[in-house]
Amino acid sequence: MDELKKKRLFDSAASPLIAILAALAVGAIVMLLTGTNPLYAYKEMFTKSFFKPYYLAETLVRSAPIMLSGVAAATVWRAGYINLGMQGQMCVGGLVAAVMAIYLPVHSLWGTALCILGGMAAATLIALIPTYLDYKFNASLIITTLMLNYAINHITNYFVAYPMRDTAGDGMAQQSVQIEQSLRFFRFSNKNAMNTSVFIAILVVILMYFVFTKTKFGYESKITGLNKNFANYGGIKSMKTMFQTMALSGALSGFAACIEIFGVRYRYVNSMFSSTGYAWTGLMAMLIAGYNPLLTLVYSIFLAGLNIGGTALQRTVGVPMQIADIIQCCITLFISVNFLYEFNKKRSGKCRKKVGKRWETGGVA
Amino acid sequence: MNNLYLAAVINTTFRYTTPVLFAALGSLACTKCAVFNVALEGQMLAASFVAIVANYYTHNAFISLLAGVAAGAFVAWIVAVFQIKWKVRDMVVGTAMNLLVQSVTAFLMQAIFGSRGTVQGFGMVPLTKINLSFLKFSPFLYRMFEDLSTIDYLGYIVAVLIFIYFYKTVSGFHLLSVGINADAADSLGIKSQRIQIWAMVFSGILCGFGGVVHAMGNVTVFAENMTSGRGFIAMGAASMAQSHPLGAIASSLFFGTALSLSKTLQGYINSYFTEAIPYLCTVLAITIYGVVISTQRRKATIKM
């Protein structure tokens, strides 16, 4: 038994490592094709994402909305439902929070809290629309959530292009006016974007770990994800779980958007959540982490670092920054296969003839 | 609104229908043998991009078409290996593949053309246009079918061919049997896994056609993430048609209308809202479809 545990631990550590190395190899090949030295590029990429204080701060700040939207996705996916609409939920949450912060007479900490709650509530409501359509009319949650992303993105962009547009400055950028000073999250220094919101995001993610593993809700959603019929038989209402998880997912997405607005940008900018792709990076982080919030946190920081490093790479070496996205997608694809398992299966298939019964009883006999 | 304007709108509708129709046919070909293909979007985008690159180097519409279709099939083959051979969850491989194609095309666009955003011009040729001269007697009909490419007509023919293949041939019957029960089909000597992989590659070919038309049918252009959800719209179209090839024509025409409305209404309503129309239409259509289906089922159970 002990040996089995050790083997499992080894597998769970080794397969992400293999996937990451393979994805980096793919990235290296792509860079070689464009005529760049991959070793130099990777050195540049990793020093300018994790090993210099300024870039490390950037990475951590960028990872905050990613980890939150990743956990938001994990909440729904581990219950066996698919939410692809984190991006739209972030847009709505961010816009509503920004509108409240700009037009309501709110100040200081309580004002920020109120705006964030408003944003989260709006995002929750938006997340519940496709859920209701699925529950009542059997409309596929996958398609409706994804379609709403595009629709919401266009509609929220309207608000910063016309009614809320900041006409001061050069007037070219489609963005709202800035929110006032007292509503912003505290920044530790003027040199980088590091602020308190990152720690709040990390705390929320850790809290979600306990929600997933230690509460009735977490257990129910996990069982629903494993087997809906069994869950229903055991008295868990799978439809109720769908509504709960989607609401929580929407709230977390809204919170992720607020973190970005009150911590970094201080305003709503045209396509600020669709062009940055936080929701998709978060989705990949949680897929790599296998729905585990703590691992999602780790991988979010890693993927955010890749993005920051990729941006630096574009500036200094001239490799398009999408190289980071390519590596991220490759990690997700490679980790999904579990090559170790595939390899073992093939090998054990061959061994079975020699060893006979022993393989089937798991080595006990 | 005069008659010719209406004809122009219908013409636009046909243009927007084709990519959706092809992708919807690809989607239902997979659904029919119990494979859920989420990577339609990626297959289309890859085809669009490769077609434009081939066009840039060769200035030959036919070679670009072939290259685009091959790219769609290649992406589909990768997805098939992951999803069917290695049994990765469809949503995981589909989403990752869509994002991968999106980033690879954006990366290569900068590497090859040195530009972000859109690629246009460079003397690239569009697909061959057909004008039906026998319709000259009626300006309305002539305008309706003006300048449509061969592929636009091919879409409807392929839909009929797929219908014949599914319901009138033995190998089509085998494919349907895999969809009904893969284990039972396996026990009778049908290689279900191989059929599923081929269906996926076939859907890649169809999406390839869709992607090429999308990039080269009207204006020859490639833009970052230019398919913008059309793969998922097509998925909606296929599910509305209950995976019936001829039904897919009707549902694709509906989404084609929604897409062309979003362009033609731009003169009257703010473009930010019209851009949202096709997506909201998709949500609405799927919802209505769900209502219709559930009432049908209820009636069926009462009869039993």
Kindly describe this structure.
- The complex is a heterodimer of chains A (365) and B (304).
- Chain A is mainly α and 365 residues long.
- Chain A has helices at 2-33, 38-47, 53-77, 86-103, 108-137, 141-161, 196-214, 216-226, 228-233, 238-265, 278-289, 293-316, 322-337, 339-355.
- The radius of gyration of chain A is 22 Å and the shape is globular.
- The two termini of chain A are 13 Å apart.
- With 304 residues, chain B is mainly alpha-helical.
- Chain B is built from twelve helices and four strands.
- A two-stranded antiparallel ribbon of chain B has the order 1-4. A two-stranded antiparallel sheet of chain B has the order 2-3.
- Chain B is globular, with a radius of gyration of 20 Å.
Major protein interface: A-B, 44 and 44 residues
Class derived from helix and strand content of chain A: mainly alpha
Number of strands of chain B: 4
User: Percent range for helical residues of chain A?
Assistant: over 70%
**Amino-to-carboxy terminus distance of chain B:** 51 Å
Report the CATH architecture of chain B.
Orthogonal Bundle
Strand content of chain B: under 5%
Features:
heterodimer; A: mainly alpha; 14 helices; disordered C terminus; B: 304 residues; mainly alpha; ABC transporter involved in vitamin B12 uptake, BtuC; two-stranded antiparallel sheet; 4 strands; globular
Layout of strands and helices, then pairs:
The complex is a heterodimer of chains A (365) and B (304).
Chain A: H1 2-33, H2 38-47, H3 53-77, H4 86-103, H5 108-137, H6 141-161, H7 196-214, H8 216-226, H9 228-233, H10 238-265, H11 278-289, H12 293-316, H13 322-337, H14 339-355
Helix pairs in contact in A: 1-2, 1-13, 2-12, 3-7, 3-10, 3-11, 3-12, 4-5, 4-6, 4-10, 5-6, 5-10, 7-8, 7-10, 8-10, 11-12, 11-13, 12-13
Chain B: H1 3-32, H2 40-58, H3 61-85, H4 90-113, E1 118-120, E2 129-130, H5 139-144, E3 148-149, H6 150-168, H7 170-180, H8 182-187, H9 192-216, E4 221-223, H10 230-240, H11 245-264, H12 271-303
Antiparallel strand pairs in B: 1-4, 2-3
Helix pairs in contact in B: 1-6, 1-9, 1-10, 1-11, 2-3, 2-4, 2-9, 2-10, 3-4, 3-9, 6-7, 6-11, 10-11, 10-12, 11-12
